[in-house]
Amino acid sequence: MSRIPSKAEILDWISANPTLTSKRDIAKAFGIKGSDRIDLKRLLKELEAEGHLQKRKKSYGDPDRLPPVSVLLVKAPDDNGDLFAQPLEWHGEGVEPIVLVLPRASDPALGQGDRILARLTVVHEDDHNYEARLIRRIGTNPKRLLGIFRKRSEGGRIVPIDKSAASEWMVAEDATHGARDGELVEAEQAGPKGRMGLPRARIVERLGDPSAPKAVSLIAIHQHGIPDSFPDAAVEEADKAKPMELKGRTDLRDMPLITIDPSDARDHDDACYAHADDDPKNPGGHVVWVAIADVAAYVRPGTALDREARKRGNSSYFPDRVVPMLPDRLSGDLCSLHEGVPRPCIAVRMQLDAEGNKIGHRFERALMRSAASLHYAEVQDAMDGAPNDRTGPLLDDVIKPLYAAYGALKTARAARQPLELDLPERRIILDDNGTVRSVNFRERLDAHRLIEEFMVLANVAAAETLIAKRAPQLFRVHEEPSPEKLDSLRETASAAGLTLAKGQVLQTRHLNALLNAAAGTDEAELINISTLRSMTQAYYGIENFGHFGLALRNYAHFTSPIRRYADLIVHRALVTSHGWGKDGLDPAEIEKLEQTATHISDTERRSMMAERDTTDRYLAAFLSERVGNEFTGRINGIARFGAFVKLDETGADGLVPVRSLGREFFHFDGEAGTLMGSDTGLIIAIGQQVTVRLTEATPVTGGLQLELLTIDDKPLPRGGSRSPAGRSGGKRKQAKAKRKSDKIKRKVVRKKR
Questions:
Q1: Where in this protein does the record put region Disordered (predicted)?
Q2: Cα(137)–Cα(101) distance, rounded to whole angstroms?
Q3: What's the rounded Cα separation, in Å, for the pair 60 and 66?
């Protein structure tokens, strides 16, 4: 007879073998056979009843875990000099996990009794379960700066790149981190602020050449004035925050809500769950739950945290880093819906009919515990028949019902017809040194579309609820295109042999008909780009003018309060309108709501510009080693000084200067968006296929300069003498070119028709 293991032995084995947790795996590990399996089953049931294990399908696992960002108490070094730490907010009922702290060379010294905020990684070692990397000590908030290091005989100085910085910073010899003269470095304040002399700093990261990849996003952050360090008062408030309890909330901890995000996501705003509706009055219907992190519970109006969140307006995302709207203690820990950790949320239960129309909804302030933190690709793989250890146990009861509800929502979407632009999003992949490894286009999976549809539905529910309760709120507004932009789009469509109807109230279905007619043709990208350019920019406002692009009458941002201040405002409005507590909208906030809307619309645009500049610089650095190579692309912009080309391979934008187009004068027609050669009659217009040679790539500015080789597979003709405007004959040549341009345009339109 084989020996039945103790409960402690079973728990230890499961902890060491997280992927082998079925009853069969456990029996095999301990050599349990025959009738002894009955005793093993009894032990597992007892462990489950005691809360040590949680059964998922036919496997067992620890239901509680530490969040990826946690507060730890550092212990005294052991005999080997290793630092271990105790998690201060362990929610589990089992054995407390052991955390090993792995200090970096640039980290300040840690000692027994230090409370730290750290990023954790799960490991399965003999003497510890997690490894921790320091974010910062609790109670400290050293100022960070970016600058050029200047070597001195002893130590050196840092010259900040921020022009508004008041002075240079001194660096002691033992705090240079090996930095060389002229390197771009990131440093933090060392020691208390003194009244006399230069402030002191400790270098925490060497970024090398100021034009090097790791410096790109930091320079953009400073150039665009994006705040990247938190005030002491805000950090202090975040550090004092504690996990929320169940009191006054609906208990959703047993509901298998899951988060689905990119594989590199550090915070999780939203979780979802769906099941078939058991209401006999709604045959074929679905119930969808969307739970959103309850940031309003932690960020109260008028606090230092609130002032800083409003100032930033939103998080800013770059290929190598994120500048968060909230400190790590909140964005990466207490407000993030991590797997297996109780977290406060505002949840909405939405009832759909068989065609995906929302027929009812209600909001709850709740406490949840995510059943799993999954990423898009693994969820899609599970639905496509290749589940892994994480998605397999959830496939039938959680993932498939989500896709069933999404199938109904697709039907409703097809009837509503939001704008369906086909413009792939590029993704820059960096290596560990920050160098661009590859540039590709993001794959669009049904898993992405599923989450998007659920979030849109929840945003609609929030707007409708606040309208019904007559509560002040911020709408996400997207107005219809102006008549002038529509006329320009009609001209572009007409020149391509397509039609956009006139004389009727424009709806997104009319634009979709145009896009569908262009699909699969050489003009598809031209029509998509031109349609996008005809759109107005979305913004936040207190007046409800609807969302044209989504074809929705009522829309507000509710689903991302960790990274958008607008969503936090909507959460507070829901709190006030439902009478959930005193952390809702206050009168002072309501009074300045219009001002807030304008401000956060501006910060959104600021982040977009910084992110775009960073992407341009990374692409220029990536292509700088390929100067002289030929590329295919399409013209996506025309200006008096040249033509802009989007390269097919990377999506990078480059300029073909008008001075490089041959020995002839080019007439610029702003209304038609064309350049036309006065001698050859060559017309350069948006949407044309081209072959270009890369002649210059400047990573510092992100600029690419191109030489035009072919247009629509035809070699570029060369004109005769070039006579710029203002010289003898210049005006006559311009007038002649204009008449010729108008004539050729009419011929092109007739030919296309």
A1: 713-753
A2: 13
A3: 18
The H or E element containing residue 594 is helix 593-623
pLDDT digits (tens, 9 = 90+) for 495-525: 788 999 787 789 999 999 999 999 988 788 8
Order of strands across the sheet with 358-369? 250-252, 358-369, 342-352, 286-293, 270-276, 258-261, 372-375
Q: Which residues contact 244 (CB under 8 A, 6 or more apart)?
A: 294, 297, 334, 342, 343, 344, 367
Structure tokens at 507: 């709806």
∠652-654-658 over CA atoms, to 5°?
165
Degrees (nearest 5) of the Cα angle 8, 11, 15?
140
Closest CA to 727 of 678, 655, 683, 687: 678
Q: Which among 107, 97, 109 has a CA at the least distance from the CA of 135?
A: 107
pLDDT tens digits for range 224-237:
889 988 999 999 99
Backbone angles phi, psi at 554, to 5 degrees: -125, 120
How many Å from the N-terminal Cα to the C-terminal Cα in the chain?
88
Q: Is 49 exposed, middle or buried (0-12, 13-18, 19+ CB in 10 A)?
A: exposed
Q: What is the pLDDT of residue 72?
A: 92
Q: Are 623 and 706 in contact (CB under 8 A)?
A: no
Mean pLDDT for 533-557 is 96
DSSP state of 329: I
Q: Are 417 and 551 in contact (CB under 8 A)?
A: yes
CA dist 489 and 515 (Å) reads 12
Residue 161 has pLDDT above 80, yes or no: no
Query: What is the per-residue pLDDT across 277-321, written as a single tens digit (0 to 9) for each?
Result: 999 999 999 999 999 999 999 999 999 999 999 999 999 999 888
- CA–CA distances in Å: residue 313 to residues 148, 201, 475, 572, 596: 29, 29, 15, 16, 9
The CA distances from residue 96 to 61, 64, 693, in Å, are 15, 10, 61
Identify the residue whose tokens are 């060491």.
Answer: 16
Alpha-carbon distances, residue 450 vs 48, 260, 405, 412, 444 (angstroms): 33, 10, 9, 13, 11
Helix (H) or strand (E) holding 381: helix 376-383
Tell me the per-residue pLDDT of 370-381, one tens digit each, with 9 for 90 and over: 999 999 999 999
pLDDT at 735 exceeding the cut of 60: no
> Quick one: CA dihedral 319, 323, 328, 331, positive or negative?
negative
CA pair distance 749, 753, nearest whole angstrom? 6
- The pLDDT tens digits for 568-581 are 999 999 999 999 99
pLDDT score at 297: 97
Summarised one tens digit per residue, pLDDT across range 212-269 is: 777 888 888 887 889 988 999 999 999 999 999 999 999 999 999 999 999 888 889 9
Opening angle at CA 390, ends 382 and 448, nearest 5: 50
* DSSP states along 494-557: HHTT-----SS---HHHHHHHHHHHTTSTTHHHHHHHHHHHSPPPEEESS---BTTTTBSS---
Residue position matching structure tokens 């191109």:
706
Structure tokens at 110: 């840690």
